[in-house]
Amino acid sequence: MAKDTYCILNGHLISVYEPSVAFNNRAFRYGDSLFESIRTCNNKLMFLRDHITRLKLGMTVLRMNVPAEFNTENIHEQIIQLLKHNTHAPNARIRLTVFRNEGGFYTPETNDISFLIESTELTSVYELNQKGFWVDTYTDIKKSVNKLANIKTGNALLYVMAGLAKQSMRLDDCFLINENGIICESINSNIFLVKNGTIYTPPLSDGCVAGVMRKQIMALATQHKVLVFESSITDYTLSNADEVFLSNSINGVQWVGQYKQKYYTNKMAVFFNEKLNQLTIN
């Protein structure tokens, strides 16, 4: 696997070993940041426009200034440059982080931003897990439903704590619960369940991240005449589902084999994994 030795900071290619972020960086101090995880498959940047659209929406929510040059075309060019220098081909994971520039305490002195692009090589295109995930709910901390819930911010302690719980329970993932007691997402994925051939996924109003892959799965379902509805998910609906699968931009879809005492099949997950990999062909 090629080593990631370069990154791009504000459009400039630098070594990952070059100290470039100050201790008063607001992402470090306050989590005053947003990020996108972007996938390349077969040298193709997947769904980049949707990622940039979501990122710019999040910047607007956080009242960050959006530079005119911060657009899909420029970011695409810089990611390709980075991949060439890191020799990450044909499959890679890209992390694009935007953070407010330093200054101030909780109240910022500026709304100008900086951005960082990193890359890590991956070994395959979208690959479905052979063994179904074993999943349970994480209930210690509930996710707040507000205008920050749908964007990917650097404030990730909820997910860190859920990850620690997953680890201690020896699970593959955990479902998160919102402040109303509704299951909204997993640690790093959106949730889909299948009942009698129809797909259901939590609405954004339940507080899940507005996943880019979530959007693609819903579009593929519509394209292939599979009914898909946004509907709240509870412990009861999970226990009565035929299938449950997860989606995120890096893994595509991953199927859940067991939730508590309930076991699932994976026919629909196999279907969407195949359709996603068809999109990776140039």
Main pleated-sheet profile: 9 strands, mixed
Low-confidence stretches: none
Helical residues, percent: 25-40%
Distance between the termini: 23 Å
Strand segment tally = 15
The name of the CATH superfamily of the largest domain reads D-amino Acid Aminotransferase, subunit A, domain 2
**Helix tally?**
7
C-alpha geometry? globular
**How would you state the average pLDDT, rounded?**
95
By CATH, the topology of the largest domain is: D-amino Acid Aminotransferase, Chain A, domain 2
Task: State Rg.
Answer: 19 Å
CATH architecture of the largest domain: Alpha-Beta Barrel
CATH class of the largest domain: Alpha Beta
Could you say which structural class the secondary elements and strand pairing correspond to? alpha+beta
Order of helices and strands: EEHEEHHEEEHEEEEHEHEEEH
Total number of distinct structural domains: 2
The fraction of residues assigned to DSSP E strands is 25-35%
Short overview:
With 282 residues, the protein is α+β, with helices and mostly antiparallel strands. The chain has two domains: 6-121, Aminotransferase class 4, branched-chain amino acid transferase, N-terminal domain (D-amino Acid Aminotransferase, Chain A, domain 1); 133-279, D-amino Acid Aminotransferase, Chain A, domain 2 (Alpha-Beta Barrel), CATH 3.20.10. It has helices at residues 26-30, 48-61, 72-85, 157-169, 212-223, 235-239, 267-279; strands at residues 6-9, 12-15, 33-41, 44-45, 92-100, 113-121, 133-143, 173-178, 183-186, 190-195, 198-201, 228-230, 243-248, 252-259, 262-263.
